[in-house]
Amino acid sequence: MAPWTRLLYLYPSDLSDELIDAILSTGVAYFDLSLQHVSKPLLRRMRRWGDGDRFLRRIDDIRARQADAAFRSNFIVGYPGETEEDHDQLLRFVEQAQLDWCGFFRYSAEEGTYAAGLDGVVDGGLMDERLAELRELQDEITARKRDALIGERVTVLVDEPGVARSTREAPEIDGIIEVHGDLDVGAFHTVEIVDAMGPALVAQSI
Q1: Is residue 99 a contact partner of residue 146, using CB atoms and an 8 Å limit?
Q2: Pair (143, 182) in one structural domain
Q3: pTM attached to this predicted model
Q4: By residue range, what is the domain housing residue 181?
Q5: Residue 1 in domain
Q6: What's CA 5's distance to the chain center, in Å?
Q7: pLDDT number for residue 2
Q8: Contact yes or no for 90/137 (Cβ under 8 A)
Q9: Which CA distances in Å does 149 have to 29, 30, 91, 171?
Q10: Regions of the chain short of the pLDDT cut 50
Q11: How many domains, in total, are found in the chain?
């Protein structure tokens, strides 16, 4: 079994066809995309490239190459100037993209940063409401995706007794796969997924 190589925090503007093919050739079809938001006006305020439609097309490009590729991204909620329409765009994107994993983070002003001087500050209570909506939606998507893996045979790397991960789970930030405690730590094993509990999977040795 070849070592696993995983690239994290990829900028969508740098995700060329050549890089996608190189990632897929490693056998770890995991794409951690640094998107931050999908509203074009808001992304320009962040001094970032892209928009939701471009991001969806790139995700579709990857899935056309490998249908079972796993995806993670992170989004900032409540960035100065974020409107209700911006938030609705993000909700629609999360529903359409069907990413395996998403992190949503409340915007926090940091003294001396560019964003700290922007107008359009979003009320803290409204930020919390938007976060709750997004997290509830993504939790449902992640749970469905994990349920769909029941019955699959996968290769896992055991990180510690009883805890493993496949190519679909990055260490420390995604869900885990619970395995029998006697599987050798630091070694690869083939297991069958027999249950799912939210982001966690349960597997048995074959």
Answers
A1: no
A2: no
A3: 0.94
A4: 153-205
A5: no
A6: 17
A7: 64
A8: no
A9: 16, 16, 25, 19
A10: none
A11: 2
